[in-house]
Amino acid sequence: MPATTLPNPSDHYIPLSTAVSMTSLYRSKRESILQPNYQDLDTLPLSETFHKTAIDLLLNTNGCLGLRIYYGMDVHEKVHAILVAVDGNNRDILPANDSLSTDNEEPIIIEVGQRCPPSCPPSSDLNT
């Protein structure tokens, strides 16, 4: 059954120690969870960095009450985060899919993050 409500905002927060444990486990399992033909190709990123201006623009989308992260794959078989705005009914804010729609404006969808590897951030508790 689809979720028709957004998660409770207070449910999103975790302690730094939990985040460190989760990112450490991911780094240690990242290659082994892949089929052998995808291993050692940096198919799965360690992180992606997005500029605040792009995130602000997305969050300022009319009706936006949340953010959804999809995962996609480019033609080089690298996984990327794709960010879209979500409304109060937990729906992606995208153009109407019916033929009566006259709104030709493209929705704000964010990708093209600074992918690590190869462009990794300075060391922190979450990436060492």
Keywords for this structure?
globular, three-stranded antiparallel beta sheet, 19% strand, alpha+beta, 128 residues
Task: Write a structural description.
By secondary structure, the protein is α+β, with helices and mostly antiparallel strands. The chain has one domain. 17% of the residues lie in helices and 19% in strands. The protein has helices at residues 16-29, 52-59; strands at residues 47-49, 66-73, 79-86, 109-110, 114-116. Strands 2-3-4 form a 3-stranded antiparallel sheet, with helices on one face. The protein has a two-stranded antiparallel ribbon with strand order 1-5. The protein is globular and about 40 Å long.
Number of domains: 1
Structural class: alpha+beta
Spatially, the strands of the biggest sheet line up as: 2-3-4
What portion of residues is helical?
10-25%
Rg of Cα set: 17 Å
Q: Estimate the strand proportion.
A: 15-25%
So what's the overall shape?
Answer: globular
How would you describe the oligomerization state of the chains in this entry?
A: single chain
Q: Which consecutive residue ranges, at least 5 long each, have pLDDT under 50?
A: 97-101
Termini, distance in Å? 38 Å
Query: Averaging pLDDT over every residue, what do you get?
Result: 89
- Helix run count: 2
Order of helix and strand elements from N to C terminus: HEHEEEE
Major beta-sheet overview:
3 strands, antiparallel
The total count of strands amounts to 5
